Amino acid sequence: PGRVYFNAVTLRTRPAKAEDVPSVLYIEKLEIDLGILALIKSTAKVRIDAKIASGHLKGTISIGKTRTQVDMSGIDLPAGNMPMKEIIGLPMSGKLELEFKLDLPIEKLKNGKTGPDWTKASGEVAFECPTGCTFGDGKTKLKPKLSNARNQAFAGEGIEFGKINVEQMLAHVKIGDGQLELDKFEAKSADGELHVDFALTLDQEFGDSDVAGCLRFKGSDGLQKREPKTYAALTTTGASIGPDNLFHIKLDGKFKTMKRLAQFCGPAVKSANMDNPGGGGNSRPNLTVQPADETLRGGSAAPAPNPPPPPAPVPPPADAAVEQPPQPTPSADGSAGSGSASFNGSAAMPPNAEAPAGSAAGAGSGGPETR
Questions:
Q1: pTM higher than 0.85, yes or no?
Q2: Is residue 166 a contact partner of residue 129, using CB atoms and an 8 Å limit?
């Protein structure tokens, strides 16, 4: 037990492929204080004080037989020095602020083993970019982490992606009562619009937690002019266009195999009415039929939807009198009626194509004229 100082510490991520570029975390000065009293109680308690470029990360990590506790905070952390690429799939620049608190009990689980029980976890996470952050560097391709090998292989070498500038961003996550919920998300950017709704119903094993979430987004006209490839990447994700004129991606399934589905969703965890995004709940059921496997992929186009079949005629009652059609009578001048029909249908889109909208309208006039 005691206090240890390290200078010029470099941490590198392990690339999944030989051609992948590892992320590097450089810590100018690291102080670790191992508490003596904690060791007496069979608990390893470490105090960390790290200087990362112009930023500062400090806090405590306590690991014992009955629980794990984390209390960390960081200010002015350079995003370029953090492993953001592994988290979001793109490099990031700008200054970040971070708060992370977690109390995770260690108990005997339903599988008979002893380990962390996430259903009894509590804590919170706050992540903020106060001003001037950028996602992407204009060189790195976006490589989304998809839920199965087939879709991951389809993504290939990644998607061309430039830069998206964010003036301000704030996210807050609350953990407790068997739930993990993103209860606050704000993002301000002239390059587009983003809304995130996310919640987990926690399982003892974190990866088996049930996901309920939705991503809604669109690029701006300014982004289309400045970064056409980035704008195209946003519009060819396979997401559906919802009634709010935003692209929708529904998040569903278990966390470790989370699916990204081409479905209208809205704030899924809050039961908002997407027929009226600004209104309250009690929405009508969503009758959009989805294919069995629609995890989003890139580069496919959706076929045009087929119009619905006409309704079957209703037969007359068995005892109804048979009516004879009226006989035409000559007239000096006659005209036929005109009619129109239209439909507007939406269908589920296959992976990675914009949601098609089909409409047809017809107007007809004509008929026999007897002179």
A1: no
A2: yes
